[in-house]
Amino acid sequence: MTTLTVYPDSGQAGTSTDDAVRVVNAADWATARAASSGSAFTNASEFYFGVSGASPGTWTLWRCFLHFDTSSLPDGATISDAVLSLSRGGTNAQNETTYRSNPQVVASTAASNNAIVDGDFDQVGSAAFCDSPPTLATYAASSGYKDFTLNAAGKAAINKTGVTKLAVRATNDLNDTAPSANSYGAVIAAENSGTTNDPKLVITYTEASAFVPKIIIS
Fold this sequence. Notes:
Layout: E1 2-6, E2 18-26, H1 29-34, E3 39-41, E4 46-52, E5 59-69, E6 78-87, E7 93-94, E8 103-107, H2 136-141, E9 145-149, H3 152-156, E10 163-170, H4 171-175, E11 183-188, E12 200-206
Antiparallel strand pairs: 1-12, 2-3, 2-5, 4-5, 4-11, 5-10, 6-9, 6-12, 7-11, 8-10
């Protein structure tokens, strides 16, 4: 088996990217969640998933976009494992105790591979790509990478000929369960120097065996 490790490009001039879109100061939870557009949060050292300002007129809801160039995978590769790893940023809130913003991986349907825009807020899937994601409490408890092992649907979303587009939504966002207090997590972005804490996708695969014809002369 072979392993491929990929990171998003920094900024929006490369092949891939990592950014977020947020709806800021919405009137209520339903308005924030159903918005078709928000404010793109790009070129930052960290971004967020989840909810802040959980009160009328101040609802802010974040959704993350994580795009990886996976075109170096062989076309005939069989993917046996895929793990998305996110390194916790510096600011995390866990005031909400009932409907926490636990992170979940879903599909990104953003039009661009490398440029997230305001209108991408609603370009996120609703199918969970991770069967056992870390809780927000586990995610926020310590620095360093937290792993999201992709399930069959997540592995099927890996693009062997181009850019794999993933997103992170909070579970209260996915399930439409409005929190009553701040609940969000921070993600260290690729804009930081080096790749030590960048979002990364590690894919384990096997290549198709090459058929070598044999001619037997008796």
